[in-house]
Each structure stands twice: as structure tokens, then as C-alpha cells.
Amino acid sequence: MRRHALVLTLPLLLACARVPTLAVPQPDTSIPAALLGNDNVRWGYPGRRGSVLIKQHFVIPYDSRYEVPTWVTYHLTRDELQGTESRTNNFRPDSKLPPDQRSELVDYRNSGYDRGHMAPAADFKRDSAAMSETFLLSNMAPQRPRMNREIWAHLEDQVRALVQARCGIWIFTGALYLDSLQNPTVPTDYIGPDSIAVPTHFYKVILCEHPDGSHEMFAFVLPNSLAPQGEPRDYVVSVDRVQHLSGLDFFAVMPDSEEHSLEAVVRTSWPIP
Fold it and tell me: Which domain CATH number covers 148?
């Protein structure tokens, strides 16, 4: 069994112990050489390299400390949603990762958590290879069943509807570890023999590009809870908020004036008709 030490990054100021919030370092947003020219990161590389897994249609910087993706990103257009490939459900470990740095099927078995897709299978019906790749465990993180199958699935449906109706998107999906005050911290819950970290929250960050070249941004932070309440629109935040919580810098290639204005906006008009 691999064990992960709880690393405390702030001194204890009082005798009573608590899990500290993290001092988040500035992200390294330089694009790895292997990703130069990759359309999935056209608008930038948010940071945290880890093990970069370049799949056929998406990119996964994999956090081997926690054995879940740091984030997963891909570009999605209306044409790419027209496929009819069925779910393969061939969940399996990613052979591109060493056995001591990856999750296995046994880690999720009887854990009380779903194998939650970061790049959802329904976005990759274009062909069998793309569909199959979404079932690699490197594309998974532990999600509460109701969260995964209800509000998270609803959000994924709404994102696809946005693509069908209005624009192509670049989307980033990832895990967060937050304390009760919504500050970044370290994981406190793990599952399985390989100690897979359980996120407290998940985020989606979306850049929407319209046919005329104009852009919109949308962002969400949803709790990984037993029975999440409300609708996806109740969890809309600014991209700036996700950057603060994750320590990442999204869309850094975009001109600063456009990037900063878009990232500051909370797009409350969701879902988009």
C-alpha cells in the first residue's frame, strides 16, 4: 500500500492543531515541448506539469502524488459531437503510467465512489478509439455517486448543448481540495490500496469561441458531496475564482486585456440558450 504524508505548509500558531491552508506557488505556464502545436492547449497551459499524458483528443497532466488528474483539457466542436459510438465501459489502468503511480480498478471497488470522468465519454462519440480512451483511469477521480450521476452529468449535458447551439469550446476540468472555509488545502480522504485522493470539489472552466472570433468564459465549482443541491447555475463562479482555488493560470496565451476582463466576469446567465 502506498501512503501519502500530510505535508503542513503553514506553522501552527496555536496549540490546537488544524489542517493548514496552502500557500499556492505561481504556476509555470510554459507549454511543454511535447505539446507545442497541440490544439487542446492553443490558449495556454495552466501549469503543474506532473506526468503529461497526451491522448488522441485530450491532454492529462497527471498528479502522481494523489493519483488523479491535475486537470484534463480538450477542444470540442459541433461536428465532433455528431458521432454515434456507444460507451465502451472498458475501465482500465493507464499503461503509460508506472504501476506505483497510477490508480487501479481495485481502488474504486466498494469504495462508495464512482470512477468520475474528467473528459466525459459522451463528448467523444466520434470514434471507438476516442471513446475508449475516456475510460482510462488516468481520466478519473473519485466522485460521489449522486454528484456524478445527477448535477455533474447535468452540467456536462448543458456544456454539450452550448457547443451544439453557439460555439466551439476549450474546456478544463479538474479536482480541488478545499477546507471548510473554501481555502486550498491538502487531501484528507483517500480510497483503495493505492491511496487515491478524494477531491472535495471539482471545477470546469470553459472558453467559448464564436464564429466571429469573439469569446466568452464560464466557470463552475461543485462540491463532491453525498447529495448536492440545486442546479449547475447555482455553482457559477468567475475563472479568477477557480484560478485562486487551484493555483493555475488559464488562457495565458490570450491577450492580457481580453483575458483579464473575461476571467473576472461571473456569467450568471446559465444554461445558455
Answer: 3.40.570.10
Active site residue 117: yes
Q: What's residue 256's pLDDT?
A: 94
pLDDT at 80: 95
- Domain presence at residue 243: yes
Active-site position among 4, 57, 75, 117: 117
User: What secondary structure, in 3-state letters, does 138-200 show?
Assistant: HHEEEECHHHHHHHHHHHHHHHHHHHHHCCEEEEEEEEECECCCCCECCCCCEECCCCEECCC
Residue 19 lies in a domain: no
pTM of the predicted structure, to 2 decimals: 0.89
Residue 33 in contact with residue 161, Cβ under 8 Å? no
Q: Is 253 within a domain?
A: yes
Q: What percent of the chain stands above pLDDT 90?
A: 84
Alpha-carbon distance 36 to 205, whole Å? 21
Domain annotation covers residue 22: no
What is the domain range of residue 185? 33-263
